[in-house]
Each structure stands twice: as C-alpha cells, then as structure tokens.
Amino acid sequence: MLSKGRLVPNFFSAPYADVRVVGIPRALLFHRYGALWTTFFEALGRTVVVSEPTTRDTVAAGTALSTDESCLASKIFLGHVDELRECCDAVFVPCYDNEGARRAFCTKFQAAPDVVANTFCDPPVRVLSCSVNETADKQDARQAFLSLAMKLGAMPKQAKHAWKAAVRAQQEAEKAACARTKATFDAVRRAEEAGEAPLTILLAAHPYLTYDPSIGGTIAEMLRNLGANVVMACENDRKKTLAASFDFSETMPWIVNREIIGAITLLHDAVDGIVLVSAFPCGPDSMTDDAIVRCIQGKPILNLTVDAQSGTAGLETRVESFVDILRYQKRGGYIHGEA
Asked: InterPro entries from the xrefs (predicted)?
C-alpha cells in the first residue's frame, strides 16, 4: 500500500514476515557474498544459521539428491540445503543472473531457487529468494535486496539501513581478502631480500572451490605443506581483475571466470606457477580453462578437475610433481620448457 508516496509493507506485500530464522547454505555464492547476506538479515533482526563446512557426508547427501549431470559444486550445495531444512524457517536461495553485460553468472545460480524447491518438495522447504538481473529486469543487487526486505516486513528506512550495513560488511570482507594477498607477497619479498628463493603459486578457481575444505582447501593445504606460498585468485581487487580480463577476451560472458583470468593476467609475473581448479563438469570452466592453458604463455599451469569420486591420493601425486618441477625450474633447470 502507498502512504505519502512510500511503499509500506502489509500482509500481502510481506509474505515472509513470519520468517525469523534464515538458513544460508555454505556453498556456491555464499563464498562470494556471505558477509553481505548474513549482515543484511541480521540487520533486519533475523537469526542467521549458516550450514557447517563441507564434509564427506555433505557431498554424499548432495550427490544422492542431484542428477548425474550436476557439477560437484551444485551437488555440495544441495547437501548444505539438506542440512539446514530442519533448523530454520526458510532457506535463502537467491537467483543471480548477471551484474550487467558480459558479467553473467552460470545458469546454476539462476536456477537454484527452482532446483531447491523441486528437490525438497516432500516435505517442502520454504525458499526465501530475490532476483539480481541488471540487463533484462534492470534490477541490481540493491533493488533486489530492498524488495526482499519489504517482503520480510521491513519498513523502507529499515531496509535501506540493512542494505548499507550489508555493503559495508562486504567491502570489509573484500578488503581483508586483498590484505591477505598483499601480506603473502610482502613475505615473499622479505624472503627474497634475505637471499632465499620462495615458491609462490596462484590458486585459480571459483571462490566456492577455493574456500571449500573438500576441494580448494585441500589443494591449498597440500601446496603449503610442500613449502609453497599460496595466493588465491579470488583474493584480489575485483574491479581490477574484471577490467584486466577484457584484455584477454571482449566477449566472455561469465563474471567470475573473467575475474579469475584477470587475476592470472595481473599476477602472471609475480608467481612461479598456476594451479587451475575446476569442478566436473562445469560448463563455463570447460571453455575458459582450455583458453587459459592455450593462451597464457611463459608460466607452468597445473589443470585439476575434481569430482565427487576424486580421492586425495591422485591429487597429492600431481601437486607434488608440479611443485618439484617448479623448484627445479626456479633453480635454472628449465628455461621456457627447455632442459
């Protein structure tokens, strides 16, 4: 209803006013926007429950609920939803389509609300959602979340306050990530000044792979245990990495893949090697990873594809071999592939 030109929530415009506990799966875009989401709902007076980090049981549950064609990340996502359905009033599953032209998300993020609603239909899971689509609906994240706040029964002032708090939290989280990258390179520089030859490796993967302990977290731990300094592609300034990606391709549609490629471009000369990780059978990665391996020259790249059946033994062997090669090359054993 309208009051003095402002939209005021009522019974019909606030269908989620009774939702007091919001569940958020620790998967997919949570690893990109987790700070924004949790702060937003908490600022609206809701209790937020985030699922626990991924375990073997999470992967098994998600795999059992998924179709065979689903990528590993999507299977893990459903495993996290399954964990939450008994401990919240509604599960937050947003629909992220794009953040503008050439800044699209994978279709799994667009379909996520429908997939969850149809997978968990007996008994049904209540899905709390919003849609971000800047090219078709002209609805950016701010508009989408303000609309969601109204559906939760918030007044306009409260909704705007919650959004501002969420943006601040997200900015601080991104600054902290960039600070970790800077700290790593500062440590490398100090070691070099002391006459050492530290090995620095860029872990290039989607955030939901990089931060998931069952995927990227395992690989990062392997690298560190072998004495390498690990830099995450997703822990760099997003605006800079996105801008840099257009030097690589003008037409690539996916924003996260653009940021990965941009980080590789910007950090190419500052690292000794690149570990490129993908979840089988990711569609965007199947194209962009091939382009990276073919077109990024002068730096060794280890391309790893992980699925629900992957064990750690094979990964350890490949990672150890890659690190050995990088160390040998750093000592002068290889020059541009020549012994």
From this structure: CoA_activase_DUF2229, Dehydratase_Activator_Redct
Tally of CB atoms within 10 A around 101: 9
Handedness of CA 86, 88, 90, 92 (dihedral sign): negative
Cα–Cα distance between 193 and 128 in angstroms, integer?
53
Strands 2-3 and 6-7, bridge-based pairing: antiparallel
Angle at 183 between CA 193 and CA 165, to 5 degrees: 165
Pairing relationship of beta strands 90-92 and 301-306 according to DSSP bridges: unpaired
Q: Which residue has the higher pLDDT, 30 or 123?
A: 30
Both tokens of 197, joined, read: 């030859």
Burial of 334 (0-12, 13-18, 19+ CB in 10 A): middle
Contacts of 65 (CB under 8 A, 6+ apart): 75, 78, 79, 82, 119
pLDDT of residue 1: 39
Q: Dihedral sign for Cα 228, 229, 235, 241, please.
A: negative
Burial label, 95 (beta-carbon count in 10 A; 0-12, 13-18, 19+): middle
Rounded distance, CA 74 to CA 134, Å? 24
**Preceding peptide of 281 cis, ω within 30°:** yes
> What tens digit of pLDDT does each residue of 50-91 get?
999 999 999 999 999 999 889 999 999 999 999 999 999 999
Taking residues 181-204, report their average pLDDT: 96
Domain boundaries, the chain: 2-169, 198-330
Say whether the peptide bond before residue 300 is cis (omega within 30 degrees of 0): no
The pLDDT of 307-330, averaged and rounded, is 86
Scanning the structure block, which residue is given the tokens 């090995």? 199
- Residue 162 scores a pLDDT above 80: yes
Whether residue 264 contacts residue 233, with contact meaning beta carbons closer than 8 Å, is answered with yes
**Mean of all residue pLDDT scores within the chain:** 92
Q: What does the angle CA 94 – CA 96 – CA 100 come to, to the nearest 5 degrees?
A: 150
Sheet holding 47-50, edge to edge: 47-50, 21-24, 90-92, 127-128
pLDDT for the residue 339: 46
